[in-house]
Amino acid sequence: MSKKLLIITVAAGLVSFLGAFGTAWLTKPAAVQGAAPEEPASAASQVPSPAKTAPTVLATALTPADDSTNTRAMTEEQLKELIFEVREKIEEYNTKIQSLDKERQRLAIAQQTLQKDVAELNNLRVDLAATVANLRNERDMLQKTRVEVDQAEKANLLAIAAAYDKMDPARASEILSNMAMTQSTSGGAARNTNIDDAVKILFFMQDRTKAKVLAELATSEPALAALLCQKLKQVQEGK
Fold first, then answer.
1. What's the alpha-carbon Rg for the chain, to the nearest Å?
2. CB within 8 A of 37, min separation 6: which ones?
C-alpha cells in the first residue's frame, strides 16, 4: 500500500509541474506582445535577438525535464531502498520463525523427557510403597510369632522349668504335649497362649533335660517337637 501511494504522489506532482510549466510557457509570448505598443520608437531596440533568446528558452525548456529525471531517479532509489528493507524484514521474520520452531521442538522434547521421568518416579514410588508394605507385614508377622518373656513372669518360669528338670523326660514331654494338645479345642487365642507357655518352659529348662524332653516328643509327636524347636528360636526376654 505504501509503494502505490508513493508512486501516485510522485505522478501527481509530476503532472502538476508539467501543467504549470506548459501554462507559463504558453502565456509568456503574449505578455511580450502586449508590452510592444507602449514604446513603438524603441521596439526594434528592445526586441531580443534570436541569439540571446534561444538559450533562455532552451534553459527554460530543459529545466523541467531535468527535474523530472531527478525526481524519477530519486523515486527509483527510494523504491530500491524500500524493497531492500522489505527483504531484510522478511529474512529477519523467517529467521525468527525458524528460531521459534527450534525452540518449540526443544520444549516438546523436554516435556516428553519430563513426562517420562515423572512416570518412572511414579513407578518407583509404587514399588517403594509395595516394598514398605511387605516389610511392615513381615515385621508384624515376626512380632506375632515372637515369644516374649516379661521380667514379671521370668521368676515363675524359672521355678516351673526347674521342676520339669527334676521330672522324668517322658513324663515332662507328656505334660508339654497335653499342654499343646489342649489348645486345639480351645480356640486360636488359647492355642497361641498355651504353646507359648510350653515354649517358655522349655526355654528355661536345662539344656540336657530339654534335649531329652524334645527327643521323647519327637518319638510321640514329631510335628509338635518340630514346632517347639522352631518357636524356641523366637523367644526373646523383655527388659
1. 62
2. none
Q: What is the C-alpha to C-alpha distance for residues 72 and 7, in angstroms, rounded to an integer?
A: 10
Residue whose C-alpha cell reads 514399588 in the numeric block: 127
Q: Where are the domains of the chain?
A: 148-237
DSSP 3-state of 147: strand
> Which numeric CATH code is attached to 148-237?
1.10.220
Nearest 5°: the CA angle 60, 18, 70 is: 75
* Closest residue by Cα to residue 170 from 233, 218, 232: 218
pLDDT of residue 81: 87
Q: Convert the pLDDT of each residue in 167-216 to its tens digit.
A: 999 999 888 888 877 754 444 444 455 888 888 888 889 999 999 999 99
- CB-based contact 148:191 (threshold 8 Å): no
